[in-house]
Every structure is written in structure tokens, then in C-alpha cells.
UniProtKB/TrEMBL annotation:
Name this polypeptide is given: ATP-binding protein
GO molecular function: ATP binding; GTP binding; hydrolase activity
Organism: Streptomyces bauhiniae
UniProt keyword terms in alphabetical order: ATP-binding, GTP-binding, Hydrolase, Nucleotide-binding
One Pfam assignment: ATP_bind_1
Record CDD domains: Ras_like_GTPase
Family, similarity comment: Belongs to the GPN-loop GTPase family.
Keyword Nucleotide-binding included in the entry's annotation: yes
Length: 200
């Protein structure tokens, strides 16, 4: 039986990585964090108000009745010794001041995209590109949406060459986990390449 000291040492040696989940309003960020989190996710959702109707574009997401006003938080263990802390960002422009705080120390980000409202993820793509934060674009395949391939989405968003685009179902734990694994692998390669560049 492991002692409390051994358990504490294991906790210290475990690697915890910070990941952001970003994208437009109603794209499925809260759903993705909730579906993969092994703990009860922290949510800061509020009901949409009449005042918000003047600034929130709900076209295409008419069924949406709540919105994230600060962040979502969840945690998932990828393998022994590697855990991801997930921070879902709010989607509306008026909450963007929170992004700068959330992005501090982040390994990378998932930019969720909806092909019915692809233009909504341009601000998130621009945000991470300008701050050189590695990201993957995860196309949330909504029922009834016209299917597009990863190459089509990459071209439409004018992504830098090599930026991964993956298709996913934000409601499905395994699908969400695959997105996170792709991000960790990609971000690891990007950070290693930058480190090698800086010492050469």
C-alpha cells in the first residue's frame, strides 16, 4: 500500500497541461469540456437575456438558451502522469478581455468550428496565430450541416500550413479526447521546434 508521501510524490511528478477551448457563440465549447471532463465541470452559464439579443448573433443556433459568461473548466487524464486542464472561453466579443487571462501559460488551444457559421471562428484563429499559441481546428459536425473535408475548412480559414483540422462530435467523449490528443502532439512538436530554433 502506497504511503501518503509516495502519493504526494506522484502528484508532483504528474504533468498538468493547460488547454483552451475557443470558438464562436454556440459552437459547442461547453459541450466539449463537459463530455470529456472526468470531474464535474465548472460552468458559468447564464440565460440569454433580451438585452443580449441586440449583440449576440443567434442565427443558426436558435435553440440556444444559455451562454458562458466567464469560462468552463474541466480535467481529463490522457495517460498516467499526464492530465489536461481545460478552460472553455466565452464566445461573445464583449467577454474577450477574459481570453488574455485564460491564455497565460496555455500549451495550446482547440478552436471549435461550425461549418454553418465558419466565419465565427476567424477571431479565435487570429487570436492564437498572433500570440503564437499552437492550436487545432476541430470541426463540430452538427446534424444537418453540410459536410466539408478538413482540407476545405483549412483553405476557407486560410490556416498556416501544417495547422491540423479534425472532424469531431463535441458530445462524444472519445471524439473529444482524440481532438485533445492531436492538439497535445501538435503543440509538443511546435514548442520543440521553437526551442531548437532558439538555441541554434
Amino acid at each position: 500500500m502506497a504511503s501518503e508521501h509516495d502519493e504526494a510524490a506522484d502528484d508532483i511528478s504528474a504533468l498538468a497541461l493547460k488547454i483552451l477551448v475557443a470558438g464562436g457563440f454556440g459552437v459547442g465549447k461547453t459541450t466539449l469540456v463537459g463530455s470529456v471532463s472526468e470531474i464535474r465541470p465548472l460552468r458559468t452559464e447564464e440565460l440569454l437575456s433580451e438585452a443580449g439579443q441586440l449583440v449576440d448573433d443567434t442565427d443558426g443556433v436558435d435553440h440556444k438558451v444559455t451562454t458562458t459568461v466567464a469560462m468552463d473548466f474541466g480535467r481529463i487524464t490522457i495517460r498516467s502522469g499526464l492530465a489536461l486542464y481545460l478552460f472553455g472561453t466565452p464566445g461573445q466579443d464583449r467577454f474577450w478581455f477574459i481570453w488574455d487571462e485564460l491564455s497565460q501559460g496555455a500549451l495550446g488551444a482547440v478552436v471549435l468550428a461550425d461549418t454553418r457559421r465558419l466565419e465565427d471562428c476567424f477571431p479565435a484563429v487570429d487570436y492564437f496565430e498572433h500570440r503564437r499559441i499552437p492550436f487545432v481546428v476541430a470541426v463540430n459536425c452538427f446534424p444537418g450541416a453540410r459536410p466539408y473535408g478538413a482540407h476545405d475548412v483549412s483553405r476557407a480559414l486560410d490556416l498556416d500550413q501544417g495547422t491540423p483540422v479534425v472532424l469531431c462530435d463535441a458530445r462524444d467523449r472519445d471524439s473529444g479526447k482524440e481532438v485533445l490528443i492531436r492538439l497535445v502532439e501538435y503543440a509538443g512538436r511546435m514548442h520543440t521546434a521553437r526551442l531548437l530554433d532558439s538555441v541554434s
